[in-house]
## 1
Amino acid sequence: MTFVLLFCACLLTCLGQVAQKLTIEQWGGYFPSIAQALTSVWLWLALACLGGGLLLWLLVLQRMDVGIAYPMLALNFVLITLIGRFGFKETVDRRHWLGIAMILLGVALLGRQA
């Protein structure tokens, strides 16, 4: 159950990051007034996802050692890279993919300790 909470915390954090990217794209590269910014659905979605991820993260920390749980958040790098590559058509070079593979290996090794 703890790993499910951890995965959901990662997923919500990643969704929050994607919503932030969509917020900036909606704004066209400039920061609007505070009143205009507060009308952005993407901004509110980002805040909700990041807030939900934080609450789940607190639940994870109640159940798991921080030395095991925190490195597992590196999965965010993997998820965001995949979303950037396939969702936003961003380029990802070989060195980046190698880094992703190393992160996955590290998370797998740490996951065996838990």
Note: Residues 82 and 102 are 15 Å apart (CA to CA).
## 2
Amino acid sequence: MAILTPDKITTLGSVIVKEYLLTKHNPNHIAMPTVSMAGKVIGVTIHNTDRIKTAAGTTPAEQYTRATVNGNMKDVRVQYYTDSICSWQNLPLDLSGWHAADGSGNGNRRTIAIECIMNGSGDAEDKKAENNAARLAAALLKQYGLGINHLYTHTHWLNVRDGKKGTVDQLNTMHNRYKMCPAYILPHWTAFKAKVQKYMREGTNMAQKPSTANTGSTGAPAVRYDWKRGQKVQLYKGKTQLFANESAKTPSSYLYPGTYYIYDGKCCKNGRYRITTRAEYCGKTPAGKYVTGYVSVDNFREV
């Protein structure tokens, strides 16, 4: 698979963010989370993943994104992979990830995940990657109006899952036999947390601003996962894939720009909703008689 080209390049907290959302790019039909975090985000979770060798012209964050698209990351889905150069955004911020090993707990369902790519040597690349993760975390916490005690470790959610009690920081660093993560940051977690707080106080840039290196954003509306039964939506793209079911890999037909209705408000596998042609058809059974088909969420615009 060729090196990926981001849909757009922005900056957040002075960190270059290359957006390549799996909700838009899923050629291998890897399983995707479907639970919305809209209005529910309670913090940022920090992880470490190992630095890997990369080919010329790319970075570890791009390669981890590519590995996810290929299915090589198994069921790990995170919002950001961050290295010493930049960060690659894989999921919309209002979509939950799979990263905390706590199932439907608050780690997966209510926090934004940053995978900081390091090798634990403490070399220049490690320090730059960690600094980028700190800046990004600070900007996200400010963006959501959250304080420093909403900064979590992967291990925090494992300890919560296992029924352990304590303060946020106690749970962040308390030993867990399953996994201690972020492995390379945990030994100096207090210093890392202080760095994040410092960037928050300095007024880290919260807004994601288009870069001069913009690679051609389509101007499409933000992807949403909270469509309600009966909601009127518009298909705004020139040609929209219509699927026969939630798992179909190839479309059964195509739809063109027009107005439809959300049949039952249930986000199905692969981020698809059932749609119908008339408001009075919503929720009516048998579904096969009234449902037009399944459409991916990135095709909808609210009317």
Note: Confidence is low (pLDDT under 50) at residues 204-220.
